[in-house]
Amino acid sequence: MMKWNLKELHLGVEKEKQKVKEKIRAGDLGIDALENLLDRFADTVIGSVSKWVKHVENEHRSHIAVEKELYQIIHGSMIPTFIINNEHIVTHWNRACEELTGVESYQLVGTDRQWSPFRKFKRPTMADVIVAGMSEDEIQTYYGDAWKKSILLPEAYEAEEFFPHLGEKGKWIHFLAAPIKSDDGKILGAIETLQDSTKEKEAQAKLEAQHDTLLHMHDQYKILFNNNPNPIFIVDSLTLEIIDVNKSVEGDYGYSKDELIGRPFFEVINSLAIDHAYTPEMVDLFKQRTLNGFQSGRPPWEELTFQTKDGGHVPVRYSTSFLHKKGELVGCAFFFHNLTEIKKLEKELVQSERLAAIGQTISGLSHHIKNILIGLKGGSYVMDIGLKNENPAKLKDGWQTIKNNIGRTSDLVQDLLTYSKERKPEFQPCRPNEIVEDVVSLIKDHAKKEDIKIVTKLDPGIGERIMDPESIHQILLNLVSNAIDACREVEDMDRALKVSLTSRLQNDTLVCFEVKDNGIGMGEAETANVFAPFYSTKGGKGTGIGLMVTAKLTEEHKGTIHVESQKGEGSRFIVSLPCQTGDIGD
To answer: How confident is residue 259, by pLDDT bands cut at 50, 70 and 90?
Structure first.
């Protein structure tokens, strides 16, 4: 447009000039005519110059407006941007560029130091590469493999580098530079945009790390899955078809993966099971539970016995795990645990425990029976002397000894029957405090003879309760008898021996009985073993069955028994038994 206007003005002046020359050569011009001709020529030149000046002024104003608009666009952009001219001088360095690099625009505009925010030494920026028209080999010298041609913009280049001095921990910067050309294709400068790609790089690094972790976990999963000694079936939650099995399936049942993949799971399992374990109703129940998002609990089947391909039998126990992805059920894993060795060990263990129990019982009883037999022999020996010497006193003493040992035999047999026989408590209305009083009435004469005081403190609020009175009576009788025996062993003649019985109601659901004595007490080891079978702190005088029976009766009543003892000071047994009020029910 500018060139076209200038040529037009030049041609108008030349045309007017030729006219003047022609008239002068004709020689018929007077002075006045010549002056008019020159005035008209001057007016033409002045008019042309005025038009040109006006055009230049308009162009200048337009250029200023464009420059202002460009400045506003570049400096208002949130993308870090700078521009250099064809002499590599910075003409624009926007605010976003200032924030990214920490370098103000006034420090760079008008200079060729656009490299300084990034390098310690002068090196072409990507914009300089564009303006200089460098070859690819030259670019490779500066940027190595970190650069490439832009896919989106023709004649544009891009690169990405890490600058450790930017920010606290360094920054990754992505550069994109493109040429600025005139209408005739001449490079007037270059524009370069910068992008902080640090977060993207970190995200990419995390993503790659997660990908590597997932690959590792997948590999570990495959290793664990395939090398798990238990057969595992992976089943589609919708079709209930087998989608994967591990190596143990083939090892235990003789079927290859190809024979099982794609087949209905329950059909396969039923063909393996000796009895068809999964009825259509159970399969429907399982489907319903999977559709409802069933995630826990156990379906209504337990152990199975599978038949292998060669006809062998394998006892198994299974468990199920529901597989979810993003909150949706995608499959089920069935784990089958081969119980062959466990069943074998269970049989051996039961046999071993049975033999051990028999041996322990025989060992424990033989000692006590031996003591009873010695007592019977002693009694019979005294009676023989009485008969031989016709001594009634000896006969009486011998018979009493025999009677005592017969009583010991009866007690031993009764305790063994009580311990060995499963018995359900017979719950009925009773008054626990009256049971305590009955036990005291049975034992008080024996205690008085040993100079032991019996003290009771009974909670009147207990009243009538639904409990097993027979169990309560035997529990308390055993504990009080043991307490009296513990007091008899005290060697301190000055100690006032005492056994106290206490009852109390707790939370209206428990009746608690406490039997406390100030006898010889027990150490920690004795206290820990006091309820063990055939364990006695009385030496040859005890069988070790009484407290064992007491613990059993307490357990049958769904109660608890607790002991506290200190050597030389006494013991305290607390028995807590559940109770009810009102009718017994069915």
So the answer is: confident
Sheet with strand 560-566: strands edge to edge: 453-457, 498-506, 510-517, 570-578, 560-566
CB 234 within 8 A of CB 333: yes
pTM over 0.70: no
Q: Assess contact for 474 and 553: CB atoms under 8 A.
A: yes
Question: Using an 8 Å Cβ cutoff, are 383 and 396 in contact?
Answer: no
Q: Where are the alpha helices (DSSP H) in 275-420?
A: 280-291, 340-388, 392-420
What distance in Å separates the CA atoms of residue 160 and residue 2, rounded to the nearest whole number? 42
- Sequence-distant (≥ 6) Cβ neighbours of residue 443 within 8 angstroms: 454, 477, 480, 481, 484
* Helices assigned H by DSSP within 165-255: 198-227, 247-253
Mention every residue, 6+ apart, whose C-beta is less than 8 A from residue 102. Answer: 117, 166
Would you give the DSSP letter of residue 112? Answer: S
- Report how far residue 189's alpha carbon sits from residue 179's, in angstroms, rounded to the nearest whole number: 6
Q: What is the mean pLDDT of residues 315-342?
A: 70
Find all residues with CB under 8 Å of 365, minimum gap 6, and list them.
Answer: 412, 416
Handedness of CA 105, 108, 114, 115 (dihedral sign): negative
